[in-house]
Amino acid sequence: MRNIKLVLAYDGHDFSGWQIQPDRPTVQGTLATCIGRLTGENVLPQGSGRTDAGVHALGQVATFETQSSIPSQNMVVALNDLLPLAIRVLQATDEQPDFHARKSASAKTYDYRIYRDAICPPFLARYVWHYPYPLEEEPMRRAAGAIVGEYDFTSFAAADPERGREEEERSAVRTIFSSEWRRCADELIYTVRGSGFLHHMVRNLVGTFLLVGKQSLQPEDIARILQARNRSTAGATAPASGLYLVGVEY
């Protein structure tokens, strides 16, 4: 039995997220179908995390076990021939039996893209959050730095009805290694790297930082929101269209 690691990129716009769901197009379900067609096996690939509906990936990682003798590099070509153009396999490698896309991960990086100009090009609309309204960007940068470190991020986590009670009751403590906003032409881009992320955590952080940019909150309020451990103290959830899973570290 071989343990195969895939690195994937996908346009999440037309998918109902990563996790397989009945009668809905998902990345995991589509990938499983194509692996099955290639190997003749009933396989459910395990991802590094469950990206939500509409969220994109530049470097999602998935693992699956197979008895197929197809060389891993050949799987890249074969799977890309079977997959829709919205999903691409970038790399396939054989890993040790104990390697797992989610359990072995040590860090993840996400980007969130906000398009700031008055008119959003139609070819960008599904890949950014178009927000042309006034924002003070320097306070947003200071607010982003306030979450670096180890904190309980309950205030920035959405309840997920698909997760079991035991999973919901696990610790909400995560370590953020870096958190920053940067300007790139007409885009304001948020990049965050951490040990792991809760459901909707990055989008809820972005929505809260936006309140700082609108001066409804001050950068110093981030510490208070963290300490409150109450979702109602933070900002609204930013749209899925601007979020990207950039990469996973092991």
Provide an overview of this structure.
The structure is a single chain. By secondary structure, the protein is of the alpha+beta class. It has two domains: 94 residues, 2-Layer Sandwich (Alpha-Beta Plaits), CATH 3.30.70.580; 143 residues, 2-Layer Sandwich (Alpha-Beta Plaits), CATH 3.30.70.660. It contains six helices and ten strands. Strands 1, 2, 3, 4, 5, 6, 7, 8, 9 and 10 form a ten-stranded mixed sheet that branches. Strand 8 and strand 9 form a beta hairpin. Helix 1 crosses helix 2 and helix 3 crosses helix 5. It is globular and about 60 Å long. The mean pLDDT is 95.
Give the secondary structure arrangement, pairings included.
Blueprint: E1 2-10, H1 27-39, E2 46-47, E3 56-66, H2 72-82, E4 87-95, E5 107-115, E6 129-130, H3 137-145, E7 149-152, H4 165-168, E8 173-184, E9 187-194, H5 201-213, H6 221-228, E10 243-249
